[in-house]
Amino acid sequence: MNAQELSEAMYCAFAIFAKPEHSTNYSHCEECAEYDLLLRSVARTELTVAQIGTVAWGAIPFLTPQALAYYFPRLAELALRGERNVEGDSFVCQFLNQVLSQGKGSPQLSCLGSEHRLLVLRCMDFIADVHLEEIEAQCYADVLQESILAWSM
After folding, report:
1. CB contact set of 56 (below 8 Å; sequence gap of 6+)
2. Which residues contact 5 (CB under 8 A, 6 or more apart)?
3. Structural domains counted in the chain
4. Which domain range does residue 90 map to?
5. Reduced to 3 states, what is the DSSP secondary structure of residue 90?
6. What is the DSSP string of 11-71?
7. How far is it, in rounded angstroms, from Cα 38 to Cα 95?
């Protein structure tokens, strides 16, 4: 399965998740409110790496389980394509660090069913095959292997 086919399979499987009214716990703090406002008008397929942010500033850690499930196929697609964030860093490493390393038991990933988890594992296998050089250069190889193991169990 290539990146395009994997992305299409993810969009199809994750289509059951509707866009939530709020993507973060917007009343928690100003930062959550800011991310929620940013994402309110962004459709799944229109989300950009610039809107996602960086490891130091970005919405991913603050997404509700419903919002992460809604945006997951787009996040995966951007990682599979090897996109770079506004600082020029690899988004695949950010995706691995902020999403995949949580493991399938994470509360933030609690909406995912068995079909979704299988696709996440396929996504990680693809990332390991295609983006390993970048992952190793950024010192995330151990994180990738631990994540694959955690999602496999």
Report:
1. none
2. none
3. 1
4. 3-152
5. strand
6. HHHHTTSPPPS-SB-TTS-HHHHHHHHHHHT--GGG--HHHHB-SSSBSGGGB-HHHHHHH
7. 19
> How confident is the model at residue 103, as a pLDDT?
80
pLDDT of 79 reads: 94
Residue 83 contacts residue 76 (beta carbons within 8 Å): no
Return averaged pLDDT per consecutive 10 residues of the chain, 153 residues in all. Answer: 93 97 90 89 92 82 94 95 89 88 86 94 94 92 92 84
Single out the residue of 133, 130, 137, 101 nearest to residue 6, CA to CA: 130
127 alpha carbon, distance to own chain's centre:
12
Q: Which long-range contacts (CB under 8 A, 24 or more apart) does 125-129 make?
A: 126/1, 126/3, 126/6, 126/80, 127/79, 127/80, 127/92, 127/96
**Alpha carbons 116 and 112: distance in angstroms, whole number:** 6
As a residue count, the chain comes to 153
Q: Do the beta carbons of residue 151 and residue 121 sit within 8 Å?
A: yes
pLDDT of residue 58: 82
Spatial separation of the C-alpha atoms in residues 59 and 36, rounded to whole Å:
8
